[in-house]
Amino acid sequence: MINRFFKPPSESFFLFGPRGTGKSTLMKSLFANALWIDLLSDKNFRKYSARPELLGQVLEGLPPHPTVVIDEIQRIPLLLNEVHRWIEKNPAIRFVLTGSSARKLKRESANLLGGRALFYTLHPFLAGELGAAFSLERALQHGTLPLIQMAKEPEKKLEAYVGLYLREEVQREGLVRNLGAFSRFLEVVSFSHGQVLNCSRIAEDVEVKRSAVSGYLSILDDLLLSFKVPVFTKRAKRDLIAHPKFYYFDAGVFRILRPQGPLDGSTEMEGQALEGLVAQHLLAWNAYGHHKNTLYFWRTRWGLEVDFVVYGPQCLWAFEVKNTTQIRSDDVAGLRAFREDYPETKTALLYRGDQRLLIHGIPCLPCEPFLKSLHPENTLDQIIPARPT
Prior knowledge:
5-stranded parallel sheet, 14 strands, globular, Rossmann fold, 6-stranded mixed sheet
C-alpha cells in the first residue's frame, strides 16, 4: 500500500476522480470498518435503483457515529436525497461519496447536499507519493495511474483502460450518438495536449460540427479525463491570447491516445507529456494542500509564453518547462518578460538536466527532484530555493 497525500476530513465528503486513481482502495484502507455500498455491483444497483429509501432502513440499524461509503454515487443520483435527509437527521454519520463522473449528477440536477459535504478529488500518483519508485521516464511513457503502476504490460493495460471508458461510461450512458466520431475525437484532441484549443480545427479533423467538439470536450471534463488551463490576464500589460490550453489528466492516457507514425518525433511527444506531468503535479499539490491557488498559463499574441502561472492569496509563481538537458539564455525569455510585467513574481525553469543553475536570476531546476519534493504541506517558496546550492 503506497501512502497517499490525500487526507480525509472528519465530516461527510465527496471524493471524485477518474477510474483507476485508487479511490476505492484508499477508502477501504482508511475506513476499514465502514458500511460499504458498491454501486458498481449489479445487485446493489438494482436494489437501490428500485428503492432508494432502502438506504434509510439500512442506516437505522447502524451503531452510533458510523461511516458510510457509497462507491460510484453518480450511478444512482436519487440516493443523494436520502443521504441529505440523514445528514440532517443524524449529523454523527459521516458519508463518503465517491464518483468517477460528475456528468450524470449535473444532467439530472442531483442533490449535491447544499454544502453539507465537502468536495475533493483524487489524482494519479504524485512523484512524492511513489518516492524511490518514481521514474520520470516511466511516468512520461505510461503515466502515474495506480491501476497502471504495477501492471506487467502497462501499454496493454492503458489500451484496456481507454476501452473501458468508451464502453462503460460513454456508450452505456448514451453520452454520444456516434461512438466512432467520439473515438476519432479522442485521438485528434491528443494533438492539443499542452496546446491552445482550436475547436474549429479539431472539428475539421474529426469531420463533425464545431458544436459537437464542444460537447465532446464537456464530456471529457465531466468524466474527469481532462482539464483546461486558462490564460492569466490579471493586470495585463500586453495583448494576450484568449483560449485555454488542454490537457489529458494523465501522461500515460495522453501517450496511448496520441497516434504516432514515421513523421511524429518522440521528442515532441515527450515535451507535451512532460508539460502535462508538471501540470498534474501542480494541480494535485494545490488540491491536497488546500493552497487555494489557481493554475494559469501566459502567452502574448507575439509569442512570448510562460507554461504555468500559480496564483493565489499568498502565491505568484511562474514556471517554464523544457524537455532538454541543456538550457540556453533565450529559454528564459518568457519568464523574463513575465517578470517585467509582474515584478512581484517568483520564477523557475524546470528541465531534464541534473544541475541547478541560475540564468538571468532565474533558478533552473532538474524536473525529477522538483516533482518529488512537491509535497502538499510545503509552499513553493519552501520547495524552491532562492538560489541554487
